[in-house]
Structure formats: C-alpha cells, structure tokens
Amino acid sequence: MKRSEINQAILQAKALMAQYHFLLPKFARYSLTDWKTLDRAKHQEILEAHLGWDVTDFNLGQFATTGLTLFTIRNQSTHNHKPYAEKIMLVNENQVTPMHYH
Prior knowledge:
Elements: H1 3-19, H2 32-37, H3 44-48, E1 52-56, E2 68-74, E3 86-90
Antiparallel strand pairs: 1-2, 2-3
EC number: 5.3.1.15
InterPro entries: D-lyxose_isomer (IPR010864), RmlC-like_jellyroll (IPR014710)
Catalytic activity: D-lyxose = D-xylulose
C-alpha cells in the first residue's frame, strides 16, 4: 500500500471514532516526529506490545475492496501479563476482510 492510502485510512478511522465519541489514547495522535523523538523508556509497553495503527490490504493491492483498518489498544505479551487483546477494527462499506490467521 502507498503511504498516502494508509494515512487516508487512518484519517477516516479517526473521524469515524470521533463521530461516535470513541476516545483513543494519546499515542494514536502521535506524528512521525513524535515517534522519532519520544522517550522510549516511557513508551516501552506501546513498542513491545505493538500497540497502535495497522492498515492492510492483505498484500492484494485493492484496499478499497479488500482490507482492514485497526487500532490495537491492548495486546497480550509475555512482558505485560495481560491475557487479552483489545482492538478496534474498521471495515468500510463494500470492503471485505478475508479469513486470515496470525
């Protein structure tokens, strides 16, 4: 996917969440500069648990018809002792998310 497509998907997701008053954590709004200059020690859990935005077209190059935008709020890891994950997933109208596994 092109960076512009990813950025657009994230902007649309943020707008939809704001419309429904779903508040994301502060790091959801970090800019590239913020990520480059942040105090890694204070943000270790975010980095280790892979929290944040994911946008995928499942390597098909057709995000408008096959894709998924998600934001990981919490994620199980061996370091944080959280036995669950919390992810907000958005699929656009007329877009499908194929069966997949991790």
